[in-house]
Amino acid sequence: MKEDKFRKDETEGSEDVYSKVVRAGKRTYFFDVKSTRGGDLFLTITESRKRVGMDGVARFEKNKIYLYKEDFDKYADGLNDVIEFVKTNRPDYFVQKDEPASVDGELSIDEEFDRL
Prior knowledge:
The chain has helices at 72-89, 109-115; strands at 15-24, 27-35, 41-52, 58-68. The protein is an alpha+beta fold. Strands 1-2-3-4 form a four-stranded antiparallel β-sheet, with no helix packed on it.
């Protein structure tokens, strides 16, 4: 999927440098590296979720985090720390890609949502 050079929700002073799209069930994550006019890089992380209203019209709900260069290491350290904690305490959350997402016959959260 080709993104416009500037997203509607971004300020026009930022320029896209690199983007990574991760689709995860009903959610899509956008990891965008942007450049300021001064040449500094920053990261935006956007979670986009499709919601269908009572009127049947689909809408996308977006949540965004801006991460600036001075926080990159702290953010990465914190994220790695909590992921390692979960890996240690719930290794069943980290299934191989060729294995089913469910554990012991239970449906994943996204599978349960799809059944609604």
